[in-house]
Amino acid sequence: MSSIGTGYDLSVSTYSPDGRLFQVEYANKAVEAAGVAVGIRCSDGIVLGVERLLHSKLLVKGGNRRIQSVDEHVGLATAGLLADGKHLATRLRDEAYNFRDTYNAPATVQILSDRLSGYVQAYTCYGSVRPFGVSSLVAGVDKTGPRLFCVEPSGVFYGYRACAIGKGKALAKTELEKLIAKEADGGEAITCREAIDEIARIIYLVHDDNKDKDFELEMTWVSTETGGKHRAVPGELQAEAEAKAKAALEEGMEED
Amino acid sequence: MNHHPAAWGQPLTAHQQFDMYSTNPMGMSAPRSAHSHGPVQNTQWPLVTGTSVIGIKYEGGVMLAADNLASYGSLARFRDIERLHALGTHTILGVAGDMSDFQYLKKELDGLLREEETLTLTDAHPPLSPNNLYTFLANLFYARRNKINPLWNACLVGGWDFKKDESFLGYVDLLGTTYTAPTLATGFGAHIAQPLLREAYEAKAGVDLEGRPGADGRLLTAEEAEAVIDDCMKVLYYRDARSINKYQVARVTKDGVSISESKSSETEWMYAEGLRGYGGQTQ
Amino acid sequence: MFRNSYDSDNTTFSPQGKLHQVEYALEAVKQGSAAIGLRSKTHAVLLTLKRSTGELATYQKKLIRIDDHVGIAIAGLTSDARVLSNSMRQQAMQSRMLYGRPIPVARIVQTIADKAQNNTQIYGRRPYGVGFLVIGEDETGPHLYEFSPSGTAFEYYAHSIGARSQSAKTYLEKNFESFETSDLPALINHGLSALADTLQQDKHLTTLNTSIAIIGPASAEIEQASSGAARRGYFRVWENDDIDGLLRSWRRSRGEPEDGPQEETAAEAEVAAAGEEAAAAAPAPVAETEQAAGGDDVEMQ
């Protein structure tokens, strides 16, 4: 990379001669090393899924979850440095609490994403800190309906119909584009139950058994079925989705 | 002029008579200082108030009741106020005293529970138990009273304690005073309802049961408990001038919290021709 | 002077998105002597290998009680461990004071993980140089967590940290599936076997260098009834003479001579005497004593 050794890439408070902030770009590299996280905005809620890579087989099964709750109705899936992800969740929880305190109403997902992006952006301004090595999917259902946002290490955030972050996000995104094609043409979005199957399928597809470590699938949702609350996807539902995903994967291999 | 309900019917002080509408000097308020106003003062009295909350343990649960009135002094100002508030799935909070402090308490506790709930996804830890919430409330009340800025309430906390597999009932008030008992009542209810509740409770589950018919050491059934509660609420309505005949009953069992619709007691207001036991009758 | 230009402070990402200063802090953990943690359905245990700076000094403690239901084993900078364990004790007491609730184990671990994360993001600070194994029991049962300077806390069935801990990990990975249903004596024997795998050639587990902590119901078979903590199932530490029985039954279970390696006995006796003397006098400040010939760093335990 041309940036290396130039000295323009050692601090977030230094631009390179062509106007880039290399430290922010390097923070993105930390994101790209993490297991993929996928979010879909559905007609009746949102679904989040992550590929939780296991660095040891001694880890407790089903533990060490990577998707966190921010408020009753909002979930946060992060990809990148795990500890930074916890930091951002704590911060976002404080924002949600603070908003309720001030306005006596739950914060919308957009407002929370906006607050989070402001916080993340501040860490790209000063040489005394480093940027967050994390991209976040902020998803939930509020008074405006189901919402999904992605906040990147630079502090930019966009709303999405569906989004993927982390390792293999490119492949995941092409799959997601197929999924939302109908919605993009003005049709109905898929339902949460459909999205659960699709996210499982996509994560199993993106995972490379030969190159990557073992993984556990982790999924949460906010839907009419959870009463608008952010909850783990029930075990049976997830097991079903995983079985379908594995079957689809084998089918795909036979075709190859 | 002092419009505070506590000052109603009181003669005006000399100072108040001199400048009743604070017109002198016109348009100016005196500068605040410890010298001119004395030391900083916080809440000195409650304003909009709720009256008694009562509670009793029964077989498989605990029951709380409170009426729907929030008084402004002696004025029956707000007549559809709910003073029983569910805290999570297995705790109920009943509050007497200042209603704005109660609203603050609700906000605080709901915020705490929501925060706990968000952490549960990560660590699968069960929520705060009735006991935990009661301890928290006691600390909160005591800390505020030590700041000479009390929350002007008396509360009952009822709940189901899964660790001990039995119901929980506790009292805490503005001084941070705490106690637990199988029957409890706040304020005027402590004088009027508590004896009735105790009598009913002791008759079945008391310590000295010998020779009492129907006493088997077991707690009251839910139906029996509700009958006593209804009776107490009626007597309180008759005797307590800050009550109305409209109240709710909450139950907590293993299965969770339920709060009833508002209900009323059958009352009798005819001339008490045959009433004996008061005054100087001899027969 | 530096290995590369991206490793001189913690606020600089490398072009690969790594934080070299954090990775070097993880190396500090490996300088400390080994600590092993295991858990079953009913118990969680810690086993550690203690170091001594020499014959004049006692062995440095590696097990710290946080609360009745939580305790830790440390590997790395001892002074950093003291800062973090003090913070944990405060958290634990606050939970008891405010809610009357023993703090959930996952949450107390997360509080120090969050502290550690902060130190990886702010210029002028350094990441903590110590790793913990945390055992605890709460409403969701017994737990074992690993805390590391990178600011993460993972839950494990069994885990090892510190010097030569990879050998222990190999043993644990081979055997961990049976831990869940093991009774306490079996769990401890597995732990001792894993711990023994971290020893240097011709070193052995002795009553002086081994210490064990347990959370969960006491086992009359192996624990002294006089311990109140044991009777209540609280965090307790066994070391010195108190683990003689445990070591013996472990050796028995492996078909080795119960008294341990013979040639070791005489040497150990000498060290034991020296250790007792040092303990009897006011314990010498550890930092001022000479480092052991073996190169053990006193700050790294």
Automatic annotation (TrEMBL), chain A:
Residues 8-30 form the Proteasome alpha-type subunits domain. One of its GO terms (cellular component) is proteasome core complex, alpha-subunit complex. Keywords: Cytoplasm, Nucleus, Proteasome. Its main location: cytoplasm. Gene3D superfamilies: Glutamine Phosphoribosylpyrophosphate, subunit 1, domain 1. It holds the Pfam family Proteasome_A_N. GO terms for biological process: ubiquitin-dependent protein catabolic process. It is found in: Cytoplasm; Nucleus. The proteasome is a multicatalytic proteinase complex which is characterized by its ability to cleave peptides with Arg, Phe, Tyr, Leu, and Glu adjacent to the leaving group at neutral or slightly basic pH. The proteasome has an ATP-dependent proteolytic activity. PANTHER family: PROTEASOME SUBUNIT ALPHA/BETA. Belongs to the peptidase T1A family. The 26S proteasome consists of a 20S proteasome core and two 19S regulatory subunits. This is Proteasome subunit alpha type. The lineage of its organism: Eukaryota, Fungi, Dikarya, Basidiomycota, Agaricomycotina.
From TrEMBL, chain B:
Keywords: Cytoplasm, Nucleus, Proteasome. PROSITE patterns: PROTEASOME_BETA_1 (PS00854), PROTEASOME_BETA_2 (PS51476). Pfam families: Proteasome (PF00227). Residues 21-42 are annotated as: Disordered. The keyword Cytoplasm applies. It is found in: Cytoplasm; Nucleus. One of its GO terms (biological process) is proteolysis involved in protein catabolic process. One of its GO terms (cellular component) is nucleus. Non-catalytic component of the proteasome. Belongs to the peptidase T1B family. This is Proteasome subunit beta. It comes from Apiotrichum porosum. The gene is PRE4.
Automatic annotation (TrEMBL), chain C:
The keyword Nucleus applies. Keywords: Cytoplasm, Nucleus, Proteasome. GO terms for cellular component: cytoplasm; nucleus; proteasome core complex, alpha-subunit complex. GO terms for biological process: ubiquitin-dependent protein catabolic process. SMART domains: Proteasome_A_N. The keyword Cytoplasm applies. Residues 6-28 form the Proteasome alpha-type subunits domain. Residues 258-267 have a biased composition (Acidic residues). Gene3D superfamilies: Glutamine Phosphoribosylpyrophosphate, subunit 1, domain 1 (3.60.20.10). Residues 268-293 have a biased composition (Low complexity). SUPFAM superfamilies: N-terminal nucleophile aminohydrolases (Ntn hydrolases). Pfam families: Proteasome, Proteasome_A_N. It is found in: Cytoplasm; Nucleus. Belongs to the peptidase T1A family. This is Proteasome alpha-type subunits domain-containing protein.
